[in-house]
Amino acid sequence: MIVRxxxxxxxxxxxxxxxxxARAQDFDIAGHHLVIEPMEGYCPVGHNDPADKSIxxxxxxxxxxxxxxxxxxxxxxxxxxxxxxxxxQTDILPALVFQLGLLEGEEKALPMTRQKFLEIMDAALxxxxxxxxxxxxxxxxxxxxxxxxxxxxxxLAEMTPPDxxxxxxxxxxxxxxxxxxxxxxxxxGKPNVTAGVGATTMxxxxxxxxxxxxxxxxxxxxxxxxxxxxxxLRELITRNEGAI
Length: 244
Hints:
Layout: H1 2-7, E1 25-29, E2 32-36, E3 42-44, H2 50-63, E4 67-75, H3 76-84, E5 95-101, H4 114-128, H5 132-137, H6 141-157, E6 164-172, E7 177-187, E8 190-203, E9 206-215, H7 221-241
């Protein structure tokens, strides 16, 4: 059961959101406390305003009962613009989505260390998605990038909104496991492509997925998104568990 849940990494594109305050968000889940701070350069969607709640409902619906959205954070300037005109759908990329992994639809903590969690996650994801990018990166960053470019081009050639293609495992460290993906989206009748990296980790015994999305430009951006997610995970873990 645990392996199935851990392997169900869900990536969510958030096309528009309503802005909330820039305060930390606190959660008490299955007897465990979790704090999610607004990350540098992002502003969080609130949980009280009806428009904000609709965003969380949208994200949860896309997650199909596997994950629950805890915090959605988007570009602050875009959120300010949306505050001034809520009649329009505002592109808030780049964005971060923090989600809790559900076990058979329930919120539960896992009785294991983060290291063990990531070992299980690594094995589960390797059984579902290719790890050739990660394997190549350990030998040559350029070789990994070349292969990632080829996989991205092949995926985009066959995609129409709302298709999504998983590009495989990009990295794995003591903080999390990182999966790259691209998604075709329809923005007001205009096709566009979103690139993203989803990172799965454990914080205070709680299985979490943090997803970073932005407009697709080139395969090189997956490297920078992965690096940013590593910083986000380190800050999240340090804030809740102390220095790593």
